[in-house]
Amino acid sequence: MVAPSLKLQDLIEEIRGAKTQAQEREVIQKECAHIRASFRDGDPVHRHRQLAKLLYVHMLGYPAHFGQMECLKLIASSRFTDKRVGYLGAMLLLDERHDAHLLITNSIKNDLSQGIQPVQGLALCTLSTMGSAEMCRDLAPEVEKLLLQPSPYVRKKAILTAVHMIRKVPELSSVFLPPCVHLLHERHHGILLGTITLITELCERSPAALRHFRKVVPQLVQILRTLVTTGYSTEHSISGVSDPFLQVQILRLLRILGRNHEESSETMNDLLAQVATNTDTSRNAGNAVLFETVLTIMDIRSAAGLRVLAVNILGRFLLNSDRNIRYVALTSLLRLVQSDHSAVQRHRPTVVDCLQETDASLSRRALELSLALVNSSNVRAMMQELQAFLESCPPDLRADCASGILLAAERFAPTKRWHIDTILHVLTTAGTHVRDDAVANLTQLIGGAQELHAYSVRRLYNALAEDISQQPLVQVAAWCIGEYGDLLLEGNCEEIEPLQVDEEEVLALLEKVLQSHMSLPATRGYALTALMKLSTRLQGDNNRIRQVVSIYKSCLDVELQQRAVEYDTLFRKYDHMRAAILEKMPLVERDGPQADEEAKESKAAAQLSEAVPAPTEPQASQLLDLLDLLDGASGDAQHPPPLDPSPGGALVYLLDLPCAPPPPAPIPDLKVFEREGVQLNLSFIRPPENPALLLITATATNSSEGDVTDFICQAAVPKSLQLQMQAPSGNTVPARGGLPITQLFRILNPNKAPVRLKLRLTYNHFHQSVQEIFEVNNLPVESWQ
């Protein structure tokens, strides 16, 4: 005989009345023992009550797996009270990871064919919640029949179940295509909303369905026009907006159908203009419809005037008092700035004002958009605004703001002096937050501007005298003082106020940098090198410099100690060569963008040279011309006699000249995975200096409508190979061709064995968890031979 147990209401009261967690566990353990005993005795009358209590215990986070089989028994029961609790337990306790979920397939199939609406509703809800791919394939015909049932209650649940089936098994698209066309004629709100959702899922996952439903665009346009003009029903209106949920779903479907399709886009242009101009924006429901309209206009092939209207709507969103609406507007404008730059530029003052938002996410998005709006015509005005923001922005935004200003100045600088002033202002304001290459870029810029050497060294000297805490600024200033210290002492710069500086002040400032506890080892290296270079620039005695150098011969930092020892040796043993060794750096004439262009041109030339092989004679003569440069020959140097074209002569020259081997042929890329717009491509590089090493770059892209989140790529290789995986560039791949994720694999293959990879991909896409395990054994032969 089973000991009497508590009723569900009494159990809830006793658990809530427990004063400590230990008391709660004691109550639950005691009651779970009663429930187990009841299950063992097989009491059919009170089984559903015991399972209801167990489900409440499960909701509190305690284990309840022993009730899984009882769910199956209740589902197979003929009583509705048993089925109701059984299906609820199946939804809570069963999922695809448990094989027991397959045992209820027959029960669900029988309940769907019974014709009892409440039972059919329970079965459909359970199937749409925890139905696996195998269950969806087995039960798809039954769900298809229910889509055309006369009862709206059953049809609505059948449509939602079909949506789940399409997400689980996209191959079932052909099963649900015919019923959808008939369901579009329904007037029932729930059925029509579910049908639009089902068609959206079909179009996203099946190109055939996309082509099929483009024929119903006029019907969708008519449904939306009716909603906008006459309304659907007053019970579904929100804040004066007629059924905003249905409007949003139709607009999303139109966006998918009109993308890259001229005829469909032309059909919906007038309607979109009507929705954009007639929707009330005083309430949030109207803003939601209007924002979805803007996204649809931007994704389809809409008219130019309609796109300008969409950008203006987003501009009005920026003036809204709701922070969420302003954030959505900034994010959307950031996506449009590349395609509709001139239209977005009209709202530049409003965007700049958003920089002062107290909300961190808003100010960050406004900063990204402001940087994207910078061009050659507004660079001066925008840099003033951004520099003012840099002085007062939160610390977590300072690095992004400083890097963005430096990149924009490098790309759109009107003059070199303006460029130098901008970088100096950034280094002075947020020097510790700039990128690592900022020092090298500025020294390269100053070195290439010969007419600004005196101006730059004076500006940097003044900045260094005021503050030595900004390490990048100190490094650039030390480099510049070391290179152009003679110009600093001359004091003949007309562009700034005259400043009289003597040698002792310059040396004292550099010594201060060396002795400061804020100076990094790299900064001390810059300062020590600057002192050494000043030994050839200054006219006075070098004893003070020699004393400083000798002090750092015993420095604990190995790099600084080595540098000091070398400089001291230069003083003692090679003093006659010191002036020549410490000459000024040669002028650098090119800046960042020009260097990029030249790199592209040289790459194109290299590809052309690979396609069209050059004759042997000019190559050899050019190589000999390069060798002549080592002898200090002038431009009038005699050219060598032409090479002997005979094979024997060519062999002699090949043996005599250190010709570089031709570069290896590029290894073709390989696409190894594609599913619902998510692709994974592999590119290969074998360094010439280490042929046993293979570098594989895995690039994940996403062309679908939904973001890919929590992306993880794991790899394994045979035991004869060694694999090292570096950290990926991120874990989220934005939708519609956003920034891809890259990850580097380093494979050491000393035996040149065929390379095989086993990859496991896990990610979330369209609110579904995806895991794929597959083997890649078709790598190009060039990657391992």
Word description of this protein:
The chain has 35 helices and 10 strands. Helix 2 packs antiparallel against helix 3 (47-59), helix 8 (133-146) runs antiparallel to helix 9 (152-168) and helix 18 (323-336) runs parallel beside helix 21 (360-372). The chain has 785 residues and is of the alpha+beta class. The model is unreliable at 591-595 and 597-660 (pLDDT under 50). A hairpin with a 7-residue loop joins strand 4 and strand 5 (693-702). The protein has a 5-stranded antiparallel β-sheet with strand order 3-4-5-8-7, with no helix packed on it. A 3-stranded antiparallel β-sheet has the order 6-9-10, with no helix packed on it. The chain has a two-stranded antiparallel sheet with strand order 1-2. It starts with 7 loop residues before the first helix and ends in a 9-residue tail after the last strand. 33% of the residues are buried. Among the domains are: 415-582; 670-783, Gamma-adaptin ear (GAE) domain (Immunoglobulin-like, Sandwich), CATH 2.60.40. The longest helix is centred in the N-terminal third of the chain and has 21 residues, at 21-41.
Index terms:
alpha+beta; 785 residues; ARM-type_fold; cytoplasmic vesicle; 5-stranded antiparallel beta sheet
Mean pLDDT over the residues: 83
Share of residues in strands: 5-15%
- Total helical elements: 35
Helix content class: 55-70%
Query: Order of strands in the sheet with the most strands?
Result: 3-4-5-8-7
Please state the overall shape, judged from the principal axes of the Cα atoms: elongated
**Mind summarizing the main beta sheet?**
5 strands, antiparallel
Structural class: alpha+beta
Number of beta-strand segments = 10
- How far apart, in Å, are the first and last alpha carbons? 76 Å
Radius of gyration: 37 Å
Contiguous low-pLDDT stretches (5 residues minimum) are 591-595, 597-660
InterPro entries: Adaptor_Complx_Large_Subunit, AP1_complex_gsu, ARM-like, ARM-type_fold, Clathrin/coatomer_adapt-like_N, Clathrin_a/b/g-adaptin_app_Ig, Clathrin_app_Ig-like_sf, GAE_dom
Region (Disordered): 592-617
Protein name: AP-1 complex subunit gamma
GO cellular component, one term: AP-1 adaptor complex
